[in-house]
What we know:
The chain is mostly helical. The protein is 49% helix and 0% strand. Helix 3 packs parallel to helix 5. It is elongated and about 70 Å long. The model has no long low-confidence stretch (mean pLDDT 86).
Amino acid sequence: xxxxxxxxxxxxxxxSIPEExxxxxxxxxxxxxxxxxxxxxxxxAAFEHWITEHPGTRMTERTTMPTDWDDExxxxxxxxxxxxxxxSIPEExxxxxxxxxxxxxxxxNPSFEDKLAALECWITEHPVTRIMQRTTMPTDWEEExxxxxxVAHHRQRxxx
Length: 160
C-alpha cells in the first residue's frame, strides 16, 4: 500500500475524507512526519555526525544511515543529488559539505589490493566457506559486497 500517495490524494481532495475523520487524519499525518522536509543544514549535520561515529567507512550511492527522521535515510543518494545540482548546496556550506564527503570515502573505489585483502581476511574468519557467484560479504566500502561476482570476473582474466 502506497500510503504517501494516498495521503497526497486525500490532501488534494479533502472532500474525499469523511468530515468526522478529517481532524484525526491531519493529526496522524503530522505525527508521521509526512511532508516534513529537512533542511540542508539538518542533513549535513546528521551526515557529519555519522561519519565521525563511523570512521573509515566508504560510502556509495546506495549507502543509508539512521537519522531522527528516517531509519534508512538514503545519504548516498543525497550526496549524489547535491553533486549533480551544486546550486542546491548553500554557498556557506559548500566547503563543509565537500570536506565531509571526502572524509566519508564517497566515490573512492577500493583498489584491487583492498578487495583482495578483504577477501583473504574473510576467508581466514570463515575457513569452510565456498565462494559462489552470489556470495556477498561485509566490507568497509559496502555492507554486502558481491565478492563472488568479483572473484568470477577476475578468474576469467589470465592476469590473475
